[in-house]
Description:
By secondary structure, this protein is mainly alpha-helical. The chain folds into two domains: 1-44; 48-98. It is built from five helices and three strands, in the order H-E-H-H-E-E-H-H. It has helices at residues 2-43, 51-57, 62-72, 87-97, 102-109, and strands spanning 48-50, 77-79, 82-86. Strands 1-3-2 form a three-stranded antiparallel β-sheet. Helix 2 crosses helix 3 (62-72).
Amino acid sequence: MFEEITERFFQLEAELGRVCAGMRVELSRAEEENRRLRAQVENFELVIHTEEEAAAILRMSQDTLQRLRKRKNLPHLREGQLVRYTRAQLVRITQMLEVPRLSEVKRRAS
């Protein structure tokens, strides 16, 4: 009986060692991923554009951007009375204003 218990103890100890080794590998991977993501966050720069800058980036007049913002509810930020745009919002605006290809329009109609 004692030998069976001792044998089982050593089996469980070996299994625990394998599990711990696997967990150390996973922890190491997670730590490396954490370092990589922290480096990305540290290098991330939030750029906020004025309406004049955004209009220039989008190659349209400031008046046109203002009209589209009001009519189409374009994404933007407000700082009191001032309107601002992030890079992500400018990308979204270009997607919203993109004209579908004729082939896509025909496909949707059929």
